[in-house]
Amino acid sequence: MRLGLATVVCFFSFVWLSECAPPTCYSRALGLSKEVMALLDKIHTYHRTKTCALIFPTIFLDVHNSCVTTKLRDFLYVVLNHPDQQCRERPRIVLLKRKIQNLYSIITRICYRDLVFFTDDCEAIDTGHTRPHYAEDRLQLLQEDR
Fold this sequence. Notes:
Signal peptide: 1-20
Pfam family, one: CYTL1
Keywords: Signal
Strand content: under 5%
Protein name: Cytokine like 1
Structural class: mainly alpha
Number of strands: 0
Order of helices and strands: HHHHHHH
Organism: Seriola lalandi dorsalis
């Protein structure tokens, strides 16, 4: 009985340890961008921060887009220089500022040259709509069909 219990405990400890892999630059940037988007959604819907969020530009973060660094820098400037002092001191706005600063530093400093950008569609970060990106072989097929 004790051997079976020890085996089960040992098995679950290995399962737990296998899920504790350290985050890579990509996974951390991707996870943090999702956290920022979720926090922005909360700020836009929460009654105490809804008025503060009116001056924030619309942003759809995509770490695969090369324009994300400039858009993050511009968005961070707006958050840091909010015209209302009370909005700057709200806990959710402060948390948003910290998360955006962390994401910006991860993308520009820590993971510099580690992230691969698949697109440079700056309009997609503003609107959330991406245009289709065709590889060379697909583009050649489209040209032959015409």
